[in-house]
Specification:
single chain, mainly beta, Porin, 14-stranded antiparallel β-barrel, five-stranded mixed beta sheet, 4% helix, 60% strand, globular
């Protein structure tokens, strides 16, 4: 029964990631570490957000571009107690593209944040059902932005690689499909070689930033024959994250990207085995709307989403798929540094689909 959790892992690909707190996307899922035996998987999700707002009678148009979310993993047993996993994911990202010619203050503005991470994890199982896991994560980050309404401003932060770590523990009781796992992810520091234009070309600088520390609490348990309850809580310290290029910050007086509060994301779902080969899941995810004024490069606040998934096993191959619909929380943004002129982003949503293939060997 514990294998059902792999279906719920589709949440990491298609659960409205464009609207998650800060710039979170993958959720840093390490569920592959708990797969039985030797196992490998690849996955792809396609997310299509629709986010727009209004200010002073002008509509921004849809400013959130569609994007792909790709993941892969390999898990292998070394012996009965020791195993390891290698995971590739894209933990953070942003794709902003305001249409031109709308009359909105940030019309024509674009921004992109791209990360790639490779994580290696070791796990040791004790005879009591308790296990410990830990590892290292190598992560790349690059970012760029263009805001025509602010002196034709552009910025480009070149790709940089940083290293972080993770540690955690789990408790399992296989006879009732019980598993509780907690994992801490450290911050990762990056130093981006940055070029800026603000009216004129600016001296090249280095922009320091840190992707935030986070904690994942994941759980599952059997609640009836062939039925599994699963869920989790993810905390991310977004208040410690900012991108503050020197020329922009010195002129405007605030970072290019910053968040006021940390976020908690909650997930609750049910998995059901329909036959020896087919199982399904349904899950709800929720992130509180905090009511803060946010950046025009990320004009969302909270979310509520539903994900439906199916999983089919065929010999050693496991095929999973899912679809998600998310209502994105409304938010206000400042559209003028000269005064409290606010835009209002409401009635926004995203749709995602995902597909994953796993193989046991």
């Amino acid at each position: 029964m514990n294998k059902y959790l792999a279906t719920s892992a589709m949440l990491a690909l298609i659960s409205g990631a464009a609207s998650a707190g800060g710039s979170g996307r993958s959720g840093q899922n390490i569920g592959i570490l708990f797969e039985e035996g030797n196992y490998a998987e690849v996955s792809v999700g396609s997310i299509s957000p629709d986010v727009s707002g209004t200010a002073l009678g002008a509509n921004s148009g849809d400013m959130a571009s569609s994007y792909l979310q790709i993941g892969a993993g390999y898990k292998r047993d070394i012996n009965d107690q020791l195993s390891f996993a290698v995971i590739y994911d894209q933990p953070y990202g942003a794709d902003v593209d305001y249409p031109s010619g709308t009359g909105y203050a940030f019309a024509g503005s674009t921004a992109e944040l791209e990360t790639h991470a490779l994580t290696g994890i070791l796990r040791y199982k004790f005879d009591t059902g308790v296990s410990l896991h830990g590892g290292l994560r190598a992560q790349t980050l690059e970012a760029s932005a263009s805001i025509p309404s602010i002196g034709g401003y552009t910025a480009n932060g070149e790709r940089d690689t940083g290293v972080g770590y993770l540690v955690g523990a789990a408790y399992e009781k296989p006879e009732i499909a019980l598993r509780v796992a907690i994992t801490y992810f450290s911050k990762v520091k990056h130093e981006l070689a940055t070029s800026e234009f603000l009216g004129v070309s600016q001296p090249d600088t280095v922009t320091s930033t840190e992707t935030p520390q986070a904690v994942n609490l994941d759980l599952q348990t059997g609640i009836a024959k062939d039925t599994l309850l699963f869920g989790g809580v993810r905390w991310v310290e977004w208040s410690a994250f900012e991108i503050a290029p020197a020329a922009y910050t010195g002129t405007i007086g605030s970072p290019l990207v910053a968040f006021q509060n940390n976020t908690f994301t909650y997930t609750l779902g049910v998995g059901r085995k329909f036959s020896e080969n087919l199982s399904g899941s349904a899950a709800v995810s929720y992130e509180e709307t905090l009511g803060d004024t946010v950046s025009n490069l990320g004009p969302t606040d909270g979310r509520l989403g539903l994900t439906l998934g199916l999983r089919y096993t065929m010999d050693n191959m496991v095929i999973s798929g899912g679809i998600n619909y998310t209502r994105i929380g409304g938010a206000n943004t400042v559209v003028s540094s000269a005064g409290p002129i606010l835009s209002s982003f409401t009635d926004n949503s995203s749709v995602g689909v995902g597909f994953k293939v796993g193989y046991r060997f």
